[in-house]
Design goal:
Distance between the termini: 15 Å
Largest sheet: 4 strands, antiparallel
Radius of gyration: 21 Å
Number of helices: 11
Strand content: 5-15%
Shape: globular
Order of helices and strands: HHHHHHEEEEEEEHEEHHHH
Strand order of the largest sheet: 2-3-7-6
Structural class: alpha+beta
Bound molecules: flavin-adenine dinucleotide
Helix content: 40-55%
Oligomer: single chain
């Protein structure tokens, strides 16, 4: 059952420690004081991302020659989980920018495209978006209906994408478009489309349960003319590229879930020691102490699975099953742990005076975004049965 590729023991490296301390300090100073305000108003705080860009955290995996930090997946998991320990919304946006838009261009762009876009994205001079999902095709993205028709050196794109992180604020988007027949495995291409391109605009902004400071909007294409030089890789390879990008993206969401679970757990331990009922701290009651034991055990297991997937990604080993397992397990842990956290806080957990209600709301995205838990189980079972 255990993968033969596994490396056991993931001791924190000097780089991970350095990144962790830097993110912790940043989150305490620039995110924690304002996060509830952003959550209430659904404000996407662009300034925070610009600051994270100056620190190299918007191009964590981008090689230094393209203006990035040149780190691997261990450091990347550390960045996302440390941010999510404080605020899931900021964690989600940093993850989407790093691994979806930036990651797609980095993996499949030409040298010219990488030189043009990487320095801007890695420093957050530009914010990136990534469009696969459509209103009628989410889990079944292969049946997408946004269509591109060739006209000389240009492609004319019509259709709409939905649920796109940074759909309005994003300066550039990687968008998957049908350029061939429906259900043709070579019928989808990936285009890089810049904000301001005629015929390309954001649509409705979603009013969400959680992750409210992470902007989510539609993208609309109305006779949008895009030059063929804006295609990533070969025409017709876009869906395969997107699936590869999501393989790494699942590690992002696993890290996001891990951070949310850790944040909810740490708040719960503190509260269980402080809050007294029946003349003793509630942590003295086995009903509460066992909850903490379950939370800690699941977090530890989720972290090992996530780091194992990160290790495989760093070593360029096959990771389809492993990254799906890490995403599935850690997302569900985030929901369970934050649910238990609200219970441990009792009535106070149901208010906005304590952080656990936000962890609870934010956690649910992890079981939906970048492939639902059901789709992860589909990926895992297909790998098992093939
Ligand atoms: C906050 C947020 C941010 C997002 N950001 C982006 C983004 O930046 N870019 C982007 O492209 N997309 C983004 N998404 C979209 C996200 O990836 C989709 O919501 C997700 O893939 C699910 O698609 P859907 O919502 O259409 O659900 P559906 O596919 O309609 O699924 C509905 C339900 O049916 C289940 N289901 C579907 N098919 C099967 C099956 N074969 N077997 C068993 N169960 C099944 C699902 O698991 C789910 O429970 C974002 C979503 C959210 C909520």
């Amino acid at each position: 059952m255990i993968d033969s590729t596994a490396t056991f023991g993931f001791a924190e490296t000097e780089n991970m420690r350095m990144v962790r301390d830097m993110v912790r300090e940043f989150a305490d100073r620039h995110i924690r004081p304002k996060m509830m305000e952003w959550d209430e108003s659904q404000e996407f705080p662009v300034d925070v991302f610009k600051k994270l860009g100056e620190m190299g955290l918007m191009g964590v995996l981008v090689p230094q020659e393209y203006g990035g930090s040149g780190f691997g997946y261990f450091e990347y998991v550390t960045v996302i989980s440390e941010i999510a320990k404080v605020c899931g919304s900021i964690g989600l946006s940093v993850a989407a920018h790093n691994s979806l838009c930036t990651g797609h261009i980095l993996q499949f762009g030409s040298e010219e495209q990488k030189k043009k876009y990487m320095p801007k994205l890695a420093t957050a001079e530009w914010i990136g978006a990534w469009g696969l999902t459509e209103p009628n095709t989410g889990s079944d993205a292969f049946r997408m209906m946004t269509v591109g028709v060739q006209d000389g050196d240009y492609w004319v794109i019509n259709g709409a994408k939905s649920w796109i992180t940074h759909g309005k604020t994003g300066d550039v988007a990687v968008v998957m478009v049908r350029t061939g027949e429906l259900l043709d495995s070579n019928g989808i291409s990936a285009f890089v489309i810049e904000k301001g391109t005629p015929g390309f605009r954001p649509g409705r902004k979603e009013n969400k349960l959680g992750m409210r400071a992470s902007e989510t909007t539609e993208l609309i294409f109305e006779n949008c003319r895009v030059h063929k030089s804006q295609i990533l890789g070969e025409v017709g390879q876009g869906f395969k590229q997107a699936m590869k990008v999501l393989e790494g993206g699942r590690i992002s969401i696993a890290a996001l879930g891990l951070g949310i679970a850790k944040g909810a757990y740490e708040a719960s331990v503190k509260y269980a020691k402080e809050r007294e009922q029946f003349g003793r701290p509630i942590g003295d009651f086995q009903g509460i102490a066992f909850k903490l034991a379950d939370m800690a055990t699941q977090i530890e297991a989720g972290e090992l699975l996530t780091m194992q997937a990160a290790d495989c990604k760093n070593r360029k080993l096959p990771l389809n099953k492993l990254s799906a397992m890490a995403k599935y397990y850690t997302s569900e842990v985030a929901v369970r742990v934050s649910n238990d956290a609200v219970q441990i806080f009792g009535g106070y957990g149901y208010t906005k005076d304590y952080p656990v209600e936000k962890f609870y709301r934010d956690s649910k995205l992890c079981t939906i975004g970048e492939g639902t838990s059901e789709i992860q189980k589909l990926v895992i079972s297909r790998e098992i049965l093939k």
